[in-house]
Each structure stands twice: as structure tokens, then as C-alpha cells.
Amino acid sequence: MRDEQPTPVRVNPLPNRRLATRVGVVSAVFICSVVTSVAASQSIPNTATDAQVEATDIYQYAGECVNVRDVWSNRYVVRDLFGYSLQFLPAAPTPFRMQATGLGSYLLYGPDATMPAAANAADVAPSAKADPRADWVITSQSAGLQLTNLSTGQNLSVAWYGRLVQGGGLNPRWRFDAAAGCAAFPELAVNVEGTPVPPGGGRAVEARGLIDTHVHVTAFEFLGGLFHCGRPWSRYGAADALTDCPDHDFNGAFAFAENLLSTGSLFGNHSTKGWPDFDGWPRWDSLTHEGTYWKGIERAWRGGLRILVADLVENRALCEIYWLKKNPCGDMDSLRLQAKDLYALQDYIDAQFKGPGRGFFRIVKSPAEARAVISAGKLAVVMGVETSQPFDCLYRDGVEICSPEQIDRGLQEMWDLGVRSLFPVHKFDNAFGGTTMDGGTAGVLVNVGNKYMTGRWWRVGVCSGVESDHTPPSLASAPVDGEPLLPWYPSGPVCNVRSLTPLGEYLINRMIDKGMIIETDHMSVSTRAETLAILESRGYSGVITSHGWGDDTSRRRIQALGGFVAPYASTTKDYIGNWQKARASQSAAYLWGIGFGTDTNGLGSQASPRPGASNESPVTYPFRNFDDSVAIQQSRWNSRSWDFNLTGASHYGLFLDWIEDLKHVAGQEIVDDLARGSEAYLQMWERAYTR
Questions:
Q1: Are the C-beta atoms of 326 and 76 separated by less than 8 Å?
Q2: Would the pTM of this model clear 0.85, i.e. be above it?
Q3: What are the distances in angstroms from CA 226 to CA 220, 265, 324, 582, 673?
Q4: Is 11 exposed, middle or buried (CB count within 10 Å of its CB: 0-12, 13-18, 19+)?
Q5: Residue 648: what are its φ and ψ, rounded to 5°?
């Protein structure tokens, strides 16, 4: 350990009795500290009666206010002028808020908003920045607790002169005692009064509650990891998680992707202020900023969300084209990373709730697990995949570069990771079939990506039935024979000429064999129709339209199979229209219930404020949730208030407010149908899973 002398006290040369008295006190205090600390630093208790403690639950301290006691000397840690030391006078110990950074690791947040941190490999100093230097991993020993610094790997110890330092030897000398007077660690509010009541007192009964079938919690990693600004959690809280992208500086002038996707123009400005003011983002119409911060998910869960389908997402072409990146662009590489992230988020939330399995966010791998989680009053998280080249199967210049063996390996790997729902086709034509394409500005971007990945622009033809795909924008003034330099398209309706391939048929049948949920959104009309024909021939219910990228004919076929319908959670008016159509075509053979797909973080705008809502049947606060178990207050993040009538669903927790808006317009019936959504989804999954 380092022997470091205290900073010398500079004395005013002019006579000053008060100053001399202060200097004398400080000197006396230091001498007392040295004398009384020698034994504390050098004598390790050698009997159980000295400081023996039982093995401790290291997770129990999350959020607690504690004093830190050295069990070898039975003295407490205090914050003083020089940093941190063991108390040597009858002074009150410093209370610390134990802010969990992970399972068994903590920040010790002091009343002055500083934390003991590694100044280097040996010294401990106050720091106002939450980062690995202030992060301490706790291990429980028979004699006490050991605190190991995450940054240096050194253990918290005490120098011979009483200062807190770091050392390499074993130091299980610490204990946390209950205290008062702690400061609150900066975090966002949930603004829900009450806790979800487990249905049936924890028994396996009907899973009544809301379901979001399409959300991208891990999208902060996709497109290379620098496209999306912010993330749903950080070890070091909202202040670290909710910051804007570096390339959005200068009021967003260089945020070309955000400007283009949000306004249709590459050029523009926006406030870059996330934490702490949030006057720039999140917004319902911002497509590159984080929308699923975990406190928003907690708000949704407390208000009635019972199932969340978290889709891992990637687009290799757009990732390779985008100029900023830190992550690999390969679909499977990205999916592996995002699956790891989702489990890390589960662990982080567990840490906030004092231990493994204690958090509300539970990843499930079967309908039985989902029922058990919901019966315990928690949120069942189903892992899905939405990517354009599943299993790294490629399609190039009209040739599928894949094999059944590659599909089997990839599908099994996804299954082992916990994936239970999968899109065979996403934004591009691929080895399995054709895409429904995009229109508008997005259509230009995605078609460029399709050309980049496949060597071809989208090819369209006359539709054989009443349904059609989206009509992509033309980039040429007239058609040409062969593969054009730039594509031209008729005004529509048009259909993608690419349909389900033999490899696509193989994948669909293998997913049925494994009891997986088949996502039909984004398929071309012909690909979807041929997929549904396979499902019908096998009597398979495990099929879903999760966020409105389908058509009326296929929706009715999905319902007839016992599949599940969840329209896109867009405007109040549009969702109500889609609910009415689905309700009218429900199958009498299966439980009727409906979900919604928010597509949060998925480059789709969120539920917008209803025009005129402030004056015509507005959402008023507080309101009761669907089962009257909790009160939903107006969401407030620091100084920022969110009124759905004005801001729409700017963050994930505001979808509760959106459902209240649906109720104001469509009545209680739509809420009742949404409340049956979780049970209807589980029954669909059970029919598929238990085949």
C-alpha cells in the first residue's frame, strides 16, 4: 500500500488565533488517525468472536442507505476534507446509497453526490462521475465483505494512517449497517401508484393483460452500434444511458439519418438534449433515439403489460453502408450480441430488485414459463428475430447461397439462445422469399439496400388477386430491359414477383417442427400466401401478424388458423380501424383477444397525439389501468412532463396513456379485447408448442 502524507496546511503568516486553532485541531485529528489506525490496518481478526459474520446476501443492499463499517476496527467510513477515512472522533459516519450496477456490484453514492473511486491503482478519491472506477464488486467471506474495484481489480483497504486505499491482498473487512440521510441516486420516475397483483394469487389462471408483440429493446446495437442514440439501460444510470450520438452535435446538423427519417430531408436541426432535460428527445417522431429505457418498460408493466416480444434486429446492408460503426454487421454476429444484451438487461433489473430472479423482466422460452411468470405478477419477455438474412443465408444475383444444413444449424443456435419467434423475410428479398417492399423515402433507402445485398433492384409485376405490396418509388423516368442502372415502377398496385423459395418452404416446415412462432409481416403477398398454405396443410396455429405489415386476406387466414393479430400501434384512429376489422373476422373456434406492435426503436414512428385531443375527450391524469389495480400518473422525467394529448407515446411507458386514449374514443370494449390479448397469444403458442 502507498504511504502518502496529507496535503500540508498552509498557514497565514499574520497572527490569527482562529486559524491557529483550526490548524491545531486538524493536526491533532490527523495524529489521532495515525495512531488509532495502525492496528486497524495491520491486525487481522483471528478468532470468530472478533468480527465473524455469517455469509451475506450480497444482492440485498440495492437501493439501501448504509454506513460502511470496518469490522477489523469496528469504525465507520467518513467523507472528509481529503477523501475517505475511518472515523477517529465521535463524528457521524457518512451514509451511502447503494446503487446497484449489476448483480453484486455497486456505486456508493454519497450525500454530496460523489462516490469512492479508484484515483489510480492504489488511491481512493471522491468522484462525481459514475463509471468503472467507482464501481465495486462485492464478495462475501466468513469474516466480512470484500469490495473489489471493477476498473483496477484491487480491493478496498485501509492504509496505516487511516485513509481508504486499494490493495491486492484479501480484505474481507467490510460490513454495511442500516443508515439514514442518504441522497437519492439520479434515476427516472415511473409515476405509477401501486404494484401489479398476481392473477389468482400466483396460481396458473387466465393471463389477463396487455401484450406488445413487436419491440426492439436491443436496437442500440444494430446498424453497427453507432446509428442509434441512447440505450435502454446502463450500469451507471439514465445519465449515462440517455445521451445523444456524438455525430448529432451542432443541434443535429450532421444527424443525416435522423433528419432524413424524421423529416424526409438530409438537412435540419433538432435539440440534442436527452438527459437531464429531455427537451430534444425522446419524441414520438424521432426514429434514431432510444424509446425503451427500462423505467418506461417498468411503467408499462406496472400498468398492465404482461407479455413483451423483444425482437433482435439487424440489417446488414444498411449497416455496411452507414459510415459510423463499432459492431460487426453480420446478421448472426449482431443477433448473438443482442441476445447477450437482453440477458444482461434482465440481470440489471434483477440487481435493482435485490437478486437473481427477483426483477419484473423475465425472459421465457415456453408458454408454460410465460404463464408462471405472469402468475407471479411479472413481465414475460419472448425473444424474437427480425433480420433480412437469417442464419447468414444470402441471395445474390438470383442465386440462393444457403443450404438446409445451414438453416438447421442457424435455427438451432437461435433456439439455444432463447429465440422462439422469427421473421423468415424482412426488408430485402432473401434466400427464403420476397419482401413486401417499402414506399416513400424509406422505399428509396431500402431498395438501395436490396440492390447492395442481392445485386438486383426490386422487381414487380401484376398482382394475381385483390391484395398488393407497397409500390416503391421510381428512380428512373422509364423502364428498360434487363437489370437497369436505376429502377422504374408503375404507379401501382404492384406485387413483388419473388415468392416463397424451396429453401423458404424448408425453413417454414422446420419452424413448425420446433414449435416456433412464424412471423408473416414483411413477406410479399405471394410469399405470405404460400407460407399460409403450408400452415393450413399442417393445421398449425403458431403464426402471427405482429405490427401491421400484412393484408386483410392473410389476416383472416391467420385468424382461421388460430394465429394471433396485433396491429401497429400507430395513430389512435388507425389502430381502432384495424381492431374493428380484426374483431369482425375473429374465429369462433379460438379465444378472441388482440395485441399491439409498437415497433419501438425499429425505425417506425410511435403513436402520435390524436388531433384535437386536448379539447375533445382528452386523456386526463391520473387514470386507472385496465383492471383498476393501479393509478397512472402523468409521466415526469426530472423537469420534463409528458402529456399524451400533446406528446404522443414519446417513450415506451406512454403506451399506457395511448390505451387510455383508445378507451376515450372506442369505449371499454377495445380495452377488454386488449386485456384478453396475453391469454389469446399464450393459447396460440401452446397449440404450436405442444404439437
A1: no
A2: yes
A3: 8, 20, 6, 38, 39
A4: exposed
A5: 65, -160
